[in-house]
Automatic annotation (TrEMBL), chain A:
Similarity field: Belongs to the complex I subunit 2 family.
Self-association state and partner proteins as the record states: NDH-1 is composed of 14 different subunits. Subunits NuoA, H, J, K, L, M, N constitute the membrane sector of the complex.
The species this protein was found in: Longimonas halophila
Signal peptide: none
Domain called NADH:quinone oxidoreductase/Mrp antiporter transmembrane: residue spans: 129-421
Protein name: NADH-quinone oxidoreductase subunit N
Major location category of this protein: membrane
Any single GO BP term: ATP synthesis coupled electron transport
Lineage of the organism: Bacteria, Pseudomonadati, Rhodothermota, Rhodothermia, Rhodothermales
Protein encoded by which gene: nuoN
Top-level taxon of the source organism: Bacteria
From TrEMBL, chain B:
Location of the NADH-Ubiquinone oxidoreductase (complex I) chain 5 N-terminal domain: 65-110
Domain MrpA C-terminal/MbhD: 608-672
Domain of life according to the entry: Bacteria
TM region positions: 77-97, 109-126, 132-149, 161-181, 205-230, 242-258, 270-290, 297-315, 321-346, 367-389, 404-428, 449-470, 499-518, 568-589, 601-620, 625-644, 650-675, 687-705, 743-761
A Gene Ontology molecular function term of the record: antiporter activity
Compartment(s) where it occurs, according to its Swiss-Prot or TrEMBL record: Cell membrane; Membrane
Name of the protein described by the UniProt record: Na(+)/H(+) antiporter subunit A
InterPro entries: CPA3_Na-H_Antiporter_A, MrpA_C/MbhD, MrpA_C/MbhE, ND/Mrp_TM, Proton_antipo_N
Domain MrpA C-terminal/MbhE: 683-767
Keywords: Antiport, Cell membrane, Ion transport, Membrane, Transmembrane, Transmembrane helix, Transport
The species this protein was found in: Longimonas halophila
Topology class, membrane: Multi-pass membrane protein
Length: 498, 785
């Protein structure tokens, strides 16, 4: 490696990580502010500002050609910008809905926002990584922040359990990931993803596949694919709701993005298809079946996010450019609808402790009482089912159609049947929101007068914006789809000409 | 452009209706009906060109990359259904305005209703599988909100949810069918699919496509065994029942089958599945209808009967059968919508729908009575009414079948007998006889409440007298589209004395007999059993199915998601072993040749200590012994490091092992004694898992040894350590020269961590003062917005 021009090259590469710099610097400033004034009210604003600024920057990068930075450690250009926008958007949304909710829990610490910012830095690194090293560093940066966020409710048993389980299992699965990375490096002699596929002129050795298998196990944990999903319900339920929303979307988006990069660049052919298909099948089955019986909405959404990871794997199993771009599109839709759903839940929750009052019954009649939040929740639920004309439907179409083309018809039909099953638990939320009233549910489940977090107009507006966005994505999606497809065509072209 | 407007006009009305309804007052229904009326008028302009053999297609690119268009296609079939939807819609809008007069959610109701109408028009005109599906689902959603319109009643809520779950599940099956259809034909464009001829029938997916599409159609059009949602859906306000659950939405399933008839039909599978289930549904529901005394109950089951008949005719697939299908769609829509409006008018005026409690209403609502009589005569298939023509052609179709003619004719006869009796019940019971306490207080219905029924009655009579009016303008183009070939049908009142006419006579005679035997028959044991098994029985079956599903979910959740961290870890380990094991199995394992020669005794001892320590944890139950056993394993491993030339690694391992033991002992002191000891079974399971995991990693290690090792990095450092970094100790040069930046980073991190710990310690010391501060902070009102 020629390091003579290292310093000039690294200076020149700084714009490539503009978002990471801004977000990371904001995190440091937030910590300082919190040190000087407890719960400085400017902190959420600063955080939101940093996210917004970074998003603005990334929006301009969407159309740029793919490239790499820092000695091919990181990926830049359209693909990276798309993923970054997704992650930063999730961060911005979380920052907007969190203050009223965290205030109610007496947890509106500045550190929460700092952790949010640092986790985002990790996610950006993970989602745009071009080598296994940056995959690992990004993943760990993200995970360590998330472990702390999951256990934020320290006085609450559920919160403690949440943080502890996440940490132990997370550390455990990281071991597998690291082992897999070591094997992949050992067999190819390179950490750079695009170089891996070409490393075997005469046959792929067994060890490489074993490494890929272990990497998939590690990622399976991070994106909560069954049977590595078991931490998900406990952690999602125990963590503060707005942060759960962030965990279930941004971290999944970046982990999936990295997994797609590995599958797309590093694998010589689509031979992982069967493993991924089986993973998809188990994940869809576990998520959908278990969600049926949940009386706690947060837990139900946790299982639902498992089910959606399963749908994503259907797209990955198809192993084609269309499948990957469909998966990218679905990530966007999924992020919007899940963030929104958790956002609504956070604003309609009246006692975050131990998940006691996130029951379905406690939402009875809320649809008419809080029209904007209720209508938004209805949109999220319909979209999660995959009901047209919302984004969820188009998203599902884009992940199932490539799978059919790739000959995975059996998997798609099973997936659609599970989607039909999911109607039961999503529609139940709408049913309770609109068709029941507080009089229909047991006394203990009723929300007390004025017992909710006081939704600031900004939080409500952010939730409503998600709902509108889903409608837009459901009707005028062709632009976004063109972008996601273009990303792979460009990326492919780049892989061809190293 | 006009067609797009025609589709979206309904959506536009849906958007504004909730806001302007307050201002429109009593005229609401009449005013809003201008929208469907306008669409009808616009669509009517297509009748002449379509009759002349033209088809129109409008397409706007939506997602060009996937060939998804927003496209609409006007041919005979789609125009036929579109006109039916908007035409009846006009009358329903007028009726609904009167029926729900003064309802405080009238605006919302009209919003739902016009959304439904728009979705329905979009559905029949859609020329893209994708758009078709979207509109299909929208109709399900509209049906959900309309059935549940009176959501303060538990029965309405249940019915709404049931209808949505069933039609939604069917809808997804339909989507799967569409995906396969796209695979088979290579296009999403419906008009192009219709021209692919044998492509689908010859394709390997044919059976799957038929089953999936039919699953969608049968759930939507209430065929056996899914029909139970339809009677429950009668919880909806009557205008909704009349429009959605009789005249239009339930026909969406029929439309699906009709639309794809040219490419799907003509096989034995289609003939027996569609024809057979249709015939069975038809006969069954016709007789089930006689079990009910609720006006809407009777109407619901006779609607299912009609849907069964239409399905059967589509299954039979001969030219006469298809002609009969189209005629019967019209016949049924005219008389059934009229009868629903009559039932609603009675309900509105008397607040009672039980025919055994009604009577004498002919004097109170004469026009309604007249409309009811005409509609029922048409329903019974009496000559000179439109229904007669419909029934004649059905008999003609079943009689001229190449196979199973007797079976289908018998089924049709059986069903029609019951239908005649139902018609009698509907026309006679509420209106004849003396007035009773209930009916004498009935008030005269508004114009809006009888207007629609009267118009439809006039149509039933007029088309019965002059059926040939439909021949070339309506019937010929739609039949051609349905068959996929040119057709010139002709309708006439009189076909001479022939077998169908005789059958008609027999039908009416038997039907009249059934009418008079109604009360004892209804109360007889076999009929009650029929109702119990196939009426409420299926409904209960639905409950059982849902409950069973939920019970399975509970069992699975309790088994897999038990909350124990150790089981979670066990699952992850097990799966990893499976994944890696699969890889080994799939690609073939290659390890070095193993040899046990020349292993020194102390090496054996160390290995045995490592394995023995691990195994011992399985059998020990005291905590301190467990820790000791693990320690033996750990220290033995450290010793092997030492022996094979990695003193630094051994050092680290020794330190960690020592620290672990100390930490364990510290924690153990604070823990309660073990209250229960794991059973032998658990230990065995854990042991197997441990051995499997260990074997997997051993195998991986062996495979790694087999891999040629490339030591580029090592060589690089050896080569440049002295020349570039001026140092002989390679580890040192790596730390302070080659990776100096990393070291700087590490030191910084350590520094920060140190600060952090110091802060934490300080925090603990001033805990009390911090608590005060925290509570003060929470009182501060921080407003983000």
């Amino acid at each position: 490696m020629d390091l003579s021009g290292a310093f000039t090259a690294m200076w020149a590469d700084l714009p490539a990580i503009f978002s990471m710099l801004i977000v990371g610097a904001a995190g440091l400033v937030v910590i300082l502010m919190e040190a000087f004034q407890n719960r400085d009210p400017r902190i959420p604003w600063l955080t939101a500002g940093a996210f917004g600024l970074a998003m603005g920057w990334e929006a301009f990068q969407l159309g740029t050609a793919p490239d790499t930075a820092f000695f091919e450690q990181l990926r830049t250009g359209g693909y990276a910008a798309y993923i970054n926008l997704l992650i930063l958007g999730a961060g911005l949304f979380t920052t907007l809905v969190s203050p009223p909710y965290l205030r109610r829990l007496n947890r509106n610490f500045g550190e929460v926002y700092a952790l949010l910012l640092f986790a985002t830095v990790g996610m950006i690194m993970l989602g745009t990584s071009n080598t296994l090293i940056s995959v690992f560093v990004g993943l760990e940066t993200m995970s360590v922040c998330l472990y702390i966020m999951a256990g934020l409710l320290r006085e609450d048993e559920g919160g403690i359990e949440s943080g502890f389980k996440y940490f132990v299992l997370g550390a455990f699965s990281t071991g597998f990931l690291l082992y897999g990375i070591a094997l992949m490096y050992g067999t190819t002699g390179t950490m750079h993803l695009p170089e891996m596929a070409g490393a075997f002129p005469d046959g792929v050795p067994l060890l490489f596949w074993a490494g890929v298998g272990l990497v998939i196990v590690g990622f399976g944990f991070k994106v909560s694919a069954a049977p590595f999903h078991m931490w998900t319900p406990d952690v999602y339920q125990g963590a503060p709701t707005t942060l759960t929303g962030y965990m279930s979307t941004a971290s999944k988006a970046s982990a999936f993005a990295a997994l797609i990069l590995i599958l797309f660049f590093a694998l010589p052919s689509a031979q992982a298809s069967l493993v991924l298909a089986v993973l998809a099948l188990i994940t869809m089955a576990v998520g959908n079946v278990m969600a049926l019986r949940q009386a706690n909405v947060k837990r139900m959404l946790a299982y639902s996010s498992i089910a959606h990871a399963g749908y994503m794997f259907v797209a990955l199993a198809s192993g084609t450019t269309a499948g990957y771009s469909g998966a990218l599109f679905y990530l966007l839709v999924y992020t919007v609808m899940n963030l929104g759903a958790f956002g609504v839940l956070a604003l309609l929750e009246w006692d975050g402790m131990a998940g006691r009052k996130q029951t379905l019954s406690s939402l009875a009649g809320m649809g008419l009482e809080r029209p904007v939040l209720g209508a938004s929740m209805a949109v999220f639920m319909f979209s999660l089912i995959g009901f047209p004309p919302f984004g969820g439907f188009i998203g599902k179409y884009y992940i199932f159609a490539p799978a059919v083309s790739a000959g995975l018809t059996w998997l798609v039909i099973i997936g659609l049947l599970f989607s039909a099953m999911s109607g039961y638990y999503y529609l139940r939320v709408i049913y309770v929101l609109y068709m029941q009233t507080a009089a229909d549910v047991a006394e203990a489940d009723r929300a007390p007068e004025g017992g909710f977090a006081q939704p600031a107009w900004l939080s409500t507006a952010a939730v409503a914006l998600c709902a509108v966005l889903l409608l837009v994505l459901g009707v005028a999606f062709s632009g976004v789809v063109d972008v996601t497809e273009m990303l792979f065509i460009q990326a492919d072209a780049m892989a061809q000409t190293p | 452009m006009g067609i797009v407007l025609a589709v979206f006009a309904g959506f536009a009305l849906a958007l504004v209706a909730p806001w302007i309804t307050g201002a429109t007052g009593r005229a609401t229904g009449w005013l809003y009906s201008l929208v469907p009326a306008g669409i009808t008028a616009y669509l009517s302009t297509f009748i002449a060109p379509v009759a002349a053999g033209e088809t129109m297609r409008v397409a706007y690119a939506w997602v060009p990359g996937l060939n998804v268009d927003l496209s609409f296609y006007v041919d005979g079939l789609s125009l036929f259904f579109a006109l039916l939807i908007t035409g009846i819609g006009t009358l329903i809008f007028i009726y609904a305005g009167a029926y729900l007069k003064g309802h405080h959610h009238l605006g919302r109701f009209f919003a739902y209703l016009s959304m439904f109408m728009a979705a329905m028009v979009g559905l029949v005109l859609a020329d893209n599988l994708f758009t078709f599906y979207i509109f299909f689902e929208l109709t399900s959603f509209a049906s959900f909100v309309l059935i549940g319109f009176n959501h303060d009643e538990a029965a309405s809520r249940r019915a709404a949810w049931q209808a949505l779950l069933i039609t939604k599940a069917g809808g997804l099956a339909l989507l799967a069918g569409f995906l396969l259809m796209e695979q088979a034909t290579g296009t999403l464009q419906i008009s192009a699919i219709l021209e692919t001829g044998e492509a689908i029938r010859d394709h390997g997916f044919y059976t799957a496509i038929v089953l999936l599409v039919l699953a969608g159609a049968f759930t939507k059009s209430a065929q056996f065994p899914f029909y139970f949602w339809l009677p429950n859906a009668m919880q909806a306000p009557t205008p909704v029942s009349a429009y959605l659950h009789s005249a239009t939405m339930v026909k969406a399933g029929i439309y699906v089958m009709a639309r794809f008839h040219p490419v799907l039909s003509g096989t034995d599978l289609w003939f027996w599945l569609v024809g057979g289930i249709g015939a069975f549904t038809m006969v069954l529901s016709a007789w089930l209808a006689l079990q009910y005394t609720d006006l809407k109950g009777i109407l619901a089951y006779t609607t299912i009967m009609a849907l069964g008949a239409l399905t059967m005719l589509l299954g039979l697939g001969t030219e006469t059968a298809l002609k009969a299908c189209l005629v019967f769609v019209l016949v049924h829509a005219f008389y059934k919508a009229a009868l629903f409006m009559v039932a609603g008018a009675i309900d509105h005026g008397v607040h009672e729908r039980d025919i055994t409690k009604l009577g004498g209403l002919r004097s109170k609502m004469p026009i309604t009575f007249g409309a009811a009589v005409i509609a029922c005569l048409s329903m019974a298939g009496i000559p000179l009414f439109f229904g007669f023509i419909g029934k004649e052609i059905i008999y003609e179709a079943t009689l001229h079948l190449d196979q199973a003619a007797l079976f289908f004719t018998g089924a049709a006869l059986l069903a029609n007998v019951a239908l005649v009796a139902s018609a009698g019940l509907l026309a006679i019971r509420p209106f004849m006889g003396p007035l009773n306490d209930l009916t004498s207080h009935a008030h005269r219905p508004d114009t809006g409440l009888w207007f629609g029924a009267a118009v439809l009655a006039v149509l039933s009579l007029g088309l019965g007298l002059a059926p040939w009016l439909l021949d070339s303008a309506i019937l010929a183009p739609s039949l051609s589209a349905l068959m996929g070939a040119e057709a010139t049908p002709h309708l006439a009142i009189w076909h001479g004395f022939n077998l169908p006419l005789a059958l008609s006579g027999v039908t009416v005679a038997l039907g009249v007999g059934t009418y008079f035997a109604w009360t004892p028959m209804r109360q007889s044991a076999p009929f009650r059993a029929l109702e119990r098994w196939l009426g409420t029985g299926l409904d209960n079956g639905y409950d059982h199915a849902i409950n069973g599903l939920l019970a399975t979910a509970t069992a699975q959740t309790n088994f897999l998601q038990n909350g124990y961290l150790r089981r979670y870890i066990a699952t992850i380990l097990g799966t990893t072993v499976a994944v890696v094991g699969y890889t080994f199995g799939h690609f073939g394992f290659e390890g070095p040749v193993l040899s046990f020669v020349g292993i020194a005794p102390y090496e054996w001892i160390l290995s045995l200590l490592i394995v023995g320590g691990a195994l011992a944890t399985l059998f020990l139950s005291a905590r301190i012994a467990l820790v000791a056993a693990l320690g033996i394993s750990g220290f033995s491993i450290a010793l092997t490091y030492l022996m094979y030339g990695a003193p630094d690694l051994a050092m680290t391992q020794f330190l960690i092992e020592t620290l672990t033991v100390i930490l364990f002992v510290l924690i153990l002191a604070a823990l309660p004694t073990l209250s229960e000891v794991a059973s032998i079974g658990h230990r065995l399971r854990d042991g197997v898992l441990a051995v499997a995991t260990g074997s997997m990693f051993t195998a991986l290690m062996l495979a790694v040894l087999n891999q040629p090792f490339e030591n580029r990095m090592g060589e690089y450092y050896m080569q440049y350590s002295y020349s570039e970094a001026q140092g002989r100790n390679i580890v040192n040069t790596i730390l302070v020269d080659f990776r100096a930046l990393d070291t700087l980073g590490e030191i910084t991190v350590l520094l920060i961590a140190g600060f952090g710990i110091y802060t934490l310690l300080r925090l603990k010391r001033s805990k009390t003062s911090e608590k005060v501060e925290a509570s003060r902070a929470s009182e501060q009102v921080e407003q983000l917005s």
